[in-house]
Amino acid sequence: MSETFRVGTRGSALATTQTGWAAKRLAEASGLQVETILVKTEGDVITGPLSQLGGTGVFAAALRQRLLDSGCDLAVHSLKDLPTTQPEGLVLAAIPEREDVRDALCARDGLSLAELPEGAKIGTGSPRRAAQLLAFRQDLQVVDIRGNVPTRLGRVKGIGATHDDGSVGRSVQGDLDAVVLAAAGMRRLGLESHITEYLDPSIMLPAPGQGALALEVRSTGSDHPALDQALAELDHLPTRMQVEAERALLSALEAGCAAPIGALARLEGGMLILEAVACNPDGSETMRRNAQSPAATAEAARELGRSLAESMIADGAAVVAGLA
Q1: Selection from 221, 231, 237, 215 nearest residue 30 by Cα
Q2: Cα distances (Å, whole numbers) of residue 21 to 30, 76, 96, 101, 213
Q3: Helices in the chain by DSSP H: which ranges?
């Protein structure tokens, strides 16, 4: 049996950074060597708005196929990019402790969201972010953008050229007043100095699973008992409970990761509290609801998500969010 495990990753700077972080910890815990396998996914090569690419799973399918074909032993994903239905033959063996869940504004001249001038242009590829931005300020112009984190940052006036690894979405530089990105990705890349405001969840609820990584293996295991044990040790139960509730809500709403749905769960005094928002894509209407239950098991967390989704559907969430 080989003393090396192979970890599959997308090639972007963020993906390889996240994968490197996970692989280092697993190698240290297991005593195994690690080999990185770069996989190009559909989302890395097809241009156009993410919301029109099928959104959900567009960055994960090729990576998962490589794992199923035994081309690697482990795949590392951003959990918010994964479909809520788990494919047959694969299992999420570990969800490490979550990074910052918030969305981050990166604006010119150090401006906050409230300080941006009237009609300011803000870039995002996320209908969820766009809808919540417009719900907060109808005067903003939301511009659909693609590309990796440095590419998106380069669109902001005054930030200047940033390192670009050749991903989809390279375009004109400095044409926007701000972009909105996940704080977790900015922090993992060491680019948090460009953040001018961490957007409070009261203004912008994050995507279900945002800030969390998912470490996926074949359901039969990784062929490395030491790696399987290391994965079990890296799994963080409080994070898993939170994301299970958020993703169950998304699944029950039959909404993909490109839908204008935000959700955030937190543990407080033995209770799991889940807050969710469904937005009209133009920001003209939002429905925000919350629910809680004792934090007992992962299945209880999923039931909380399903229950909140059902009550939101009964109140018309699918119509509000354009899912009906």
Answers
A1: 231
A2: 14, 10, 11, 18, 10
A3: 13-30, 42-45, 61-68, 127-136, 149-153, 183-188, 225-234, 237-252, 298-314, 317-320
Identify the pLDDT of residue 41: 64
For the chain, list residues with pLDDT below 50: 44-48, 50-56, 165, 168
What pTM was estimated for this model as a whole? Answer: 0.89
- Note the pLDDT tens digit of each residue in 182-199: 999 999 999 999 999 999
Neighbours of 311 (CB within 10 A): 13
Closest CA to 199 of 120, 267, 107, 121: 107
Confidence at residue 161, expressed as pLDDT on a 0 to 100 scale: 61
The first and second tokens of residue 89, run together, are 């033959």
- pLDDT, residue 44, reads 46
Helices 225-234 and 13-30: crossing angle, nearest 10°?
110
Indicate which residues carry an active-site annotation.
Answer: 80-81, 128-129, 146, 152, 257
Residue pair 66/72 in contact by the 8 Å Cβ criterion = yes
Radius of gyration of the chain (CA): 19
| Angle at which helices 237-252 and 298-314 cross, to 10° | 30
List the end-to-end C-alpha distance of the chain, in Å, as a whole number: 51
What integer pLDDT is reported at residue 259 of this predicted model? 83
Reported as half-sphere exposure (CB side, CA atoms, 13 A), residue 10 has a value of 25
CA dihedral 155, 161, 165, 167 (to 10 degrees): 20
**Nearest Cα residue to 93 out of 289, 235, 303, 255:** 235
In 3D, which of 251, 244, 263, 254 has the Cα closest to residue 301?
Answer: 244
Side-chain half-sphere exposure of 216, counting CA atoms within 13 A: 27
Whole-number pLDDT of residue 163: 52
